[in-house]
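Sequence only, no structure available. Ideas?
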Amino acid sequence: MSTAAPLRREQMWSRMAGADWVVLSCLAALALAPLLGLLARVWLKGGVLTGADGLLVIDPLQYSNWLRQSAEFGAAANLYDIAPSPHVFVHPGLLISGLLYRIGFGVALAYLVWKPVAVVALFAGAFLFAARFLNRSGDRRAAVICGLFFASPIAAVVGWASAASSSVKFNLDFVSGELWTGTYLWGYLFTAIGVGLMPLGLLAAERAIDGRGRRWLVAACAIGLLVSWFQPWQGATYALILIAAPLLFYRRDRSALLASARTLLPVLVATALPLIYYFALSKADPSWRLAGLVNDFGRWPWWVTVVGLAPLAIPAAFAYRLPVRNLGDWILRVWPIAGVVIFYLPFGTFPFHAFQGLALPLAILAVLAVRHRLGERPLPAAATVIVIALLVVPGTLYRADQMRGAVSAGRQAFFLEPGERDAMRWIEAQPGPGAVLAPIPDGSYISAYTGRAVWIGAGSWTPDFGWRGLAVEAMFNGVSGAAEDQRLVRQSGARFVYQSCRSKANLAPKLGAVVTGPPRQFGCAKVWEVVPPLGGWR
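Reply:
I predicted one. Tokens follow.
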């Protein structure tokens, strides 16, 4: 059985030095940085935050849309299409946020409350997992910093030197974003929690196998369930680690292997349940099936995996030559390999998420390799600072610059004008059903803030997204004629036509008899009501 044990919960805080608290503070600052920047922009230039603070606002706004539905129905449907959709998506985090929304939290705040939870989960997972293998505080701190803040300097250099359309830049940005913790903290909070919980689950499973008490088995089961529900790719990796590591460690001890299998069976069952649920959704529900097809665009080239992992994987590789003394050592060594294996399995939607969280085990392995080389000597301070700075600073600055560029471009709904917010409130307050026809950027937030379906929203969830996108862009950019605009309004089945402040087309004379009259004006935003069809709105 394993000989070394992870820190007890009560030991964690006593062993945290002042520098560790600084690391935790830096992680919190990283999590809050885009939100604070967006608030500063509102303070200087006006506007209203939508609550999305990531590089792609469509995803956190989708979560806000789902949490609002979870508050009302306990499950979410696809509101990025006017066609009826069943409420089939249940998510524990969204249910909790939905309860907060019902007691008076705004929809954005009800989602953002998970940000501090994500910070604590990520830091606790990294600190305790690193402490399991690294006794020296300096070694542990170096591994935690690299595991939490690694941002590929290669991607940064290539990104700054390449054209925006470069496929090399795109691929390296892609793999770097999947590995970087900031990606999860900027908009993908349930992913961040799942990534943070996974190492804690591995520690609990090791203790459960060691016979340290039923509470560790319960913890490993609960964490497996949550990790799979919050981020399925993390759950699949978690399960593979817990299958492979005991097989390798107990391969010569049949009785110990059978005992570990009996212990881990409930953990694997708990971890598998959400995976089975997501698989069923992808097969049985048309909207989830569409999302799977849209996001099925193959893996990146093999060299992207090599270059993306290389800064940490090359030094980590030397640790595989060190002796394996216990089950934990195998868990650590299997983790990066399991993530890559899961990525290359020929099934699943958006397998790139399998790379999330891999920086932590690679960083620990890299420090173990350096520790073996140094013997009893401490890490050289100057060299350690330089290496960590190279692994963290350029990539982080590059990501921050990307965020700045995304906000400055104005193509995503980071902000609303006050009139747009008032228009959302009016549409929400109207009695009865009825969907909304609006341009693509606005479709990302309408469902979250009105509870109504839109004719076009996220590309993954809207049928015929390409054709619909061209149609609404032609209409709201003033390119199409009156007959085409009226036909589109009728064919869409929408009850409301919403023109945000970013659209400058003069739609009033073109909509004609398909609307009930002049638009309602909300500052620079406009809303028309469509003449109801026979039988009314559904």
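DSSP finds 24 helices and six strands in the chain.
Hope that gets you unstuck.
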